Amino acid sequence: MRTNLVTREGYDKLRDELNYLWREYRPEITAKVTWAASLGDRSENADYKENKRLLRKIDSRIRFLRKRLEILKVVDFAPEQAGRVFFGAWVEIENDDGDTKTFRIVGPDEIYDRKDYISIDSPMARALLKKEEDDQVDVKTPEGIRVWYINRISYAEDNQEG
């Protein structure tokens, strides 16, 4: 199951990617394909083949982004969320060994290229939802139940590390 939630920042990033692909990158690659096609025999033309493959990849991503952006629901911070873990929260947790982790709970479309983001669909995020600071959280993992404690919850943007 894939949740259709996204933070405002995540939505803006996906929209910006779509605009870049459609307005800048695709026209650039289309021009290269046109140039390579003008050289003659396409069966032996590596520039043509490679750029045509790249154009298909770009078009696929554009189609995906257009469809995805239509169904995503932007979730903004609401003051009543303060003090509890909800979508968009930065959470610092610690286990009995003293290991700490800090991450933000976001939509599945936002976790790529960010080691400090986890999907709302992950077992960790699901276990943390609606919990408060100092709460114990039991997370089901393939290795068994892992116990974590919530040290800090924040919705401030100054927590971004990446």
From TrEMBL:
Transmembrane segments: none annotated. The keyword Transcription regulation applies. GO terms for biological process: DNA-templated transcription elongation; regulation of DNA-templated transcription elongation. Keywords: DNA-binding, Elongation factor, Protein biosynthesis, Transcription, Transcription regulation. Gene3D superfamilies: Transcription elongation factor, GreA/GreB, C-terminal domain, Transcription elongation factor, GreA/GreB, N-terminal domain. It holds the Pfam family GreA_GreB. Residues 5-74 form the Transcription elongation factor GreA/GreB N-terminal domain. InterPro entries: GreA/GreB_C_sf, TF_GreA/GreB_CS, Tscrpt_elong_fac_GreA/B, Tscrpt_elong_fac_GreA/B_C, Tscrpt_elong_fac_GreA/B_fam, Tscrpt_elong_fac_GreA/B_N, Tscrpt_elong_fac_GreA/B_N_sf, Tscrpt_elong_fac_GreB. Residues 81-155 form the Transcription elongation factor GreA/GreB C-terminal domain. One of its GO terms (molecular function) is translation elongation factor activity. Necessary for efficient RNA polymerase transcription elongation past template-encoded arresting sites. The arresting sites in DNA have the property of trapping a certain fraction of elongating RNA polymerases that pass through, resulting in locked ternary complexes. Cleavage of the nascent transcript by cleavage factors such as GreA or GreB allows the resumption of elongation from the new 3'terminus. GreB releases sequences of up to 9 nucleotides in length. Belongs to the GreA/GreB family. GreB subfamily. NCBIfam families: greB, PRK01885.1. This is Transcription elongation factor GreB. The gene is greB.
